[in-house]
């Protein structure tokens, strides 16, 4: 029996910013997110705005009530802070996807990915 496809997250850097958000200190964190073939993340939110770059593969993405979008290597995307990230997955059955994301978030954020409770995720 093969293992469940996984999402791998690596922090590339995290820097304190001199910019305040609602009077509070902020950080910019850059992450490398690698999705195994057919891997995806459950619905969630991020405490800060996310800018992403698809470095390799294909990435399906849906936030809020927006349409499901498909991004290929070289494409970019944006995700506002605290919006529901409904779909984030690699649809390819054979190749991994690799995404570089930068998030500007409150410096005291306990989690950079806040899982959505299952009862709130129903249509």
Automatic annotation (TrEMBL):
Domain Cupin type-2: 32-101
InterPro entries linked to this entry: Cupin_2, RmlC-like_jellyroll, RmlC_Cupin_sf
Entries under CDD domains matching the protein: cupin_BLR7677-like
Short name of any one Pfam family annotated for the protein: Cupin_2
Gene3D superfamilies named in the record: Jelly Rolls
Name the record gives this protein: Cupin domain protein
């Amino acid at each position: 029996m093969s293992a469940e496809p996984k999402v791998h997250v690596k922090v590339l850097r995290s820097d304190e910013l001199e910019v305040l958000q609602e009077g509070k200190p902020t950080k910019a964190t850059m992450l490398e997110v690698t999705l195994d073939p057919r891997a995806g993340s459950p619905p969630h939110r991020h405490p800060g705005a996310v800018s992403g770059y698809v470095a390799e593969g294909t990435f399906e993405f849906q936030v809020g009530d927006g349409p499901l979008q498909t991004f290929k290597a070289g494409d970019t995307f944006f995700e506002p802070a605290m919006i529901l990230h409904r779909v984030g997955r690699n649809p390819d059955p054979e190749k991994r996807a690799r995404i570089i994301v930068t998030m500007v978030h409150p410096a005291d954020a306990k989690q950079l990915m806040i899982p959505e409770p299952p009862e709130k995720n129903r249509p």
